[in-house]
Design a protein that fits this description.
By secondary structure, the protein is α+β, with helices and mostly antiparallel strands. 24% of the residues lie in helices and 23% in strands. The mean pLDDT is 91. The protein binds a DNA duplex (16 and 16 nucleotides) through loops. Keywords: DNA damage, DNA repair, DNA-binding, Glycosidase, Hydrolase, Lyase, Metal-binding, Multifunctional enzyme, Zinc, Zinc-finger.
DNA sequence: CCCCTCTCCTGATCGC
DNA sequence: TGCGATCAGGAGAGGG
């Protein structure tokens, strides 16, 4: 399940291999993969053709390629999206196929079809150029211009569970269910606590842990559980071997030994230590 | 405005 | 063996 570190791994792979290359062929196999491109598959195909990739960008879980035309090809991996370079052997979930002028195939493979491609204009927001569909997304904790104090200030006004806020991409981006649980475990805070009830140092610590855990994951090539996430070469990450909270229901807390629990909230699983991260009274 | 729930999708897995 | 139910969850639409 691609969150910031996994998306960044993909961006780096693309930056290393396709910048400067021209797109010489495009085929959309599944219209749902380009549903967010309002002008339709034919328009996307036509505008990608003969375009040169000039650079790459990322904010949170959004990734994009800048093109010679001035457009950005915005890619969201959703739950199971992959950007693959090279021959695709399993074509079952091949949604968009392109060819570059050096003969490399660049493919978008996505089993659950939550992800997709779209073309968009770039716009400058707060001094940083991002594609229009990304303009509403907050800076992520690995952004050099991430403003910890400003995000803490926002969180201090939220009458809402802290985990919900960590998952809200307009508050802080890049964090998904896995890294939210890891950050909260490191900070010893239960995700059901109300954000505004937490102190500034605690909120700042949670954000700091989010940055740390995502940097750690990035160093190991991202997290993967079921091979749905792979980098541009089709290799899985290794960070799942060092998760402290996510998926550890019934196992001992690595800090205190208490048995880790799983709760349902927001229709999602939350893994936490009942001793280190006690649930708030209702 | 703020907050929350629902919905989209496919495949693995589970219980009967 | 088969089949329906459940689960995984990012993010936007829409409701209260």
């Amino acid at each position: 399940m691609p969150e910031l570190p996994e998306v960044e791994v993909v961006r780096r792979g693309l930056a290393a291999h396709i910048v400067g290359k021209k797109i010489t062929a495009v085929r959309v196999n599944h219209p749902r993969a380009v549903r967010r491109h309002e002008e339709g598959p034919a328009d996307l195909t036509a505008r990608l053709l003969d375009n040169v990739v000039t650079g790459t960008g990322r904010r949170g879980k959004y990734l994009w390629l800048t093109l010679g035309s001035g457009d950005a090809l915005v890619v969201h991996l959703g739950m199971s999206g992959q950007m693959l370079l090279g021959p695709v052997t399993k074509t079952e979930h091949l949604r968009v196929a392109t060819l570059l002028d050096d003969g490399t195939a660049m493919s978008f493979v996505d089993q659950r079809t939550f992800g997709g491609w779209m073309l968009a204009d770039l716009v400058t927001v707060d001094g940083t150029e991002v594609p229009v569909p990304v303009a509403h997304v907050a800076r992520d904790p690995l952004d050099p211009l991430f403003d910890d104090a400003a995000v803490v200030k926002v969180l201090r006004r939220k009458h809402s569970e802290i985990k919900r806020q960590l998952l809200d991409q307009t508050v802080v981006s890049g964090i998904g269910n896995i890294y939210a649980d890891e950050s909260l475990w490191r900070a010893k805070v239960n995700g059901a606590r109300i954000a505004e009830s937490l102190t500034k140092p605690t909120l700042s610590a949670i954000l700091g842990h989010a940055a740390d855990v995502m940097r750690d994951a990035l160093g190991q090539g991202g997290t993967s559980f079921d091979s749905l996430y792979v980098n541009v070469n089709g290799e899985s990450g290794y960070f799942d071997r060092s998760l402290d909270a996510y998926g550890r229901e019934g196992e001992p807390c690595k800090r205190c030994g208490a048995i880790m629990q799983r709760d349902k909230f927001m229709n999602r699983s939350s893994y936490y230590c009942p001793k280190c991260q006690p649930r708030p009274r209702r």
